[in-house]
Each structure stands twice: as C-alpha cells, then as structure tokens.
Amino acid sequence: MSLATTQVATRGAVAVRSVDKSYGNQQVLHEVDLDVAEGEVLVIIGPSGSGKSTLLRTINHLDKVDRGTISLDGELIGYKVRNGKLHERRESEILAQRTEVGMVFQNFNLFGHLTALQNIIEAPIYARKIPKAKALARAKELLARVGLADKAGAYPRQLSGGQQQRVAIARALALDPKVVLFDEPTSALDPELVTEVLEVIKDLAKSGTTLIIVTHEIGFARDVADRIIFMDSGRVVEQGTPNELMTNPQHERTKSFLSKVI
Ligand code: ADP
Ligand code: MG
C-alpha cells in the first residue's frame, strides 16, 4: 500500500464503545456499542423512551456519557486522554468538535428572528469565521439543494413545517459536517409535508455523507438505510440490513415493535 493510500483520512466514522448513561437513578443507555462507517446511512428505530435521542445527543456531547467513549474519525468526543486518564475537553474544543456534527431536530429549531438565509450563515460566520460573502454563496447553494432557492428572505413563520425542516437541513450542512444526525425529522410534520423532507434526506444519503437517522418512517428506513439498528430500554437489541431486520427479525421485541409500526 502506498503512503498516499494509507494517509487517506476517514470521514464521518463513528465508534461508540460501551456507553452507559443515566438520568438520576434511571439508566437510559446500557453498554451501547456501535460502529458507523464512513459514508454509511444508519437508521435507528425503537419505541419511545428507548434512548434513541440520548444516544444521538451523546455523539455531539450535548449529553455526557457516564462510562465508555465515543469517537469521530478516531478522535474522542468531549474527552482527551492525558496520563492514561480521560479528561473533559475545554469548552472551546467541545464547540469546535460540535461543528463537525450536523444535527436536525424534530421541531426544526430555527432562529425565529432570522431569515432562512441568515439561519444558514449564522454558524459559518460566527463559529467558524468564514467570510460573509463566501458563507452567503454557500448558503444559497444549500437552499437551492433543498429546493428553496426562492425562500432565502423568508422568516420561519412564513414557511410551512416541511420548508422549515428543509432550511434546518441546509443549516446542518453549512459547516460541511463529517456526520449528520437526524432526530425524528418528520415527526412534527403534517402527513402531506413528510415526503418533501424525506426526499431531501434521500438525496443527501446518495451524496456519501455519513448519516444517523432516528425515524418511525419504516418505509423510508428500508429505502435509505445501509443498516438499521433496533433499540429497546437503552440497549441495541438487534441490527442488520433493512432486509434482514424487516423480513427476518431475530428477537421477540423487534418482531413485536415491527408488527406495530409496519
Ligand atoms: P427516545 O428518543 O428513544 O424516545 P430518550 O433518549 O429521549 O428516548 O429518553 C430515554 C429515557 O431517558 C426516557 O425514559 C426519558 O424520559 C429519559 N430522559 C431523557 N432525557 C432526560 C433528561 N434530560 N432528564 C431526565 N430524563 C431524561
Ligand atoms: Mg427521541
């Protein structure tokens, strides 16, 4: 293997190792182990309260793990090893790491006082000090990519839920993240607006960006996922290709969950 080949950096590979997380005396993640490969589209399914959102939030250190580690392209998230021990990183380093992880929430979380375009350029300009002209040009490209080139000047309240979520996706992509996390991106939408958002995510999936998507849209999961994991009570119960998991689930809990959602 040539040096050039060995030095190609991975992009967006996530490794979760033996992660435990509790709130008070309730343990919500139990020894979660998960590998997401560069460019992979991983879908997480599971009942409400099974720890899906918590797992996503630990990936960008919005929630701190109690035990275990999470790394992105080999770099520990939120911690550093010093003298053989884990030490939490400085706030500035944590914020810098967070800019490598895009996040799309159920409720869009756009800034209501900013236009679509301003929402997208906010982080590039203030968190990464990208020159305004460059950030604007990129934001316009991203708006076009999500089919909203004509909505640059619109405020969130002037947009439908589906349009707001597409702006939120454009915003999540603005810093060219290594991985994008979606937490039930269509759960808050009226049924007729779901498809337009799923189409944007499918398009992104084809582009080779690593995606981790929590969703209850089982048909979409089947179309878009390279792999699906089923979580229950804070554990990864089962995982496989969409076909394996949907047509031949191994665990009773997976079967019972799927029988309710399909
Ligand atoms: P899911 O996304 O699968 O519905 P969550 O990760 O949101 O599950 O929640 C897992 C469990 O942790 C639930 O029992 C929930 O009530 C609890 N939980 C989540 N966030 C908090 C929090 N900030 N404080 C206390 N309990 C929480
Ligand atoms: Mg959730």
From TrEMBL:
Keywords in alphabetical order: ATP-binding, Nucleotide-binding, Transport
Do the record's keywords include Iron?
no
Enzyme class of the recorded protein, top EC level:
translocase
The chemistry this enzyme catalyses reads:
a polar amino acid(out) + ATP + H2O = a polar amino acid(in) + ADP + phosphate + H(+)
ABC transporter domain residues are 14-258
GO molecular function: any one?
Answer: ATP binding
Q: Which SMART domains match?
A: AAA (SM00382)
Concerning SUPFAM superfamilies, the annotation shows: P-loop containing nucleoside triphosphate hydrolases (SSF52540)
**Which Gene3D superfamilies does the UniProt record give?**
P-loop containing nucleotide triphosphate hydrolases
**What EC number(s) are associated with this protein in UniProt?**
7.4.2.1
InterPro entries associated with the record: AAA+_ATPase, ABC_ATPase_HisP-typ, ABC_transporter-like_ATP-bd, ABC_transporter-like_CS, MetN_ABC_transporter-like, P-loop_NTPase
Which family does the entry's similarity section mention?
Belongs to the ABC transporter superfamily.
What is the protein's given name? ABC-type polar-amino-acid transporter
The species is Glutamicibacter halophytocola
Q: What is the lineage of its organism?
A: Bacteria, Bacillati, Actinomycetota, Actinomycetes, Micrococcales
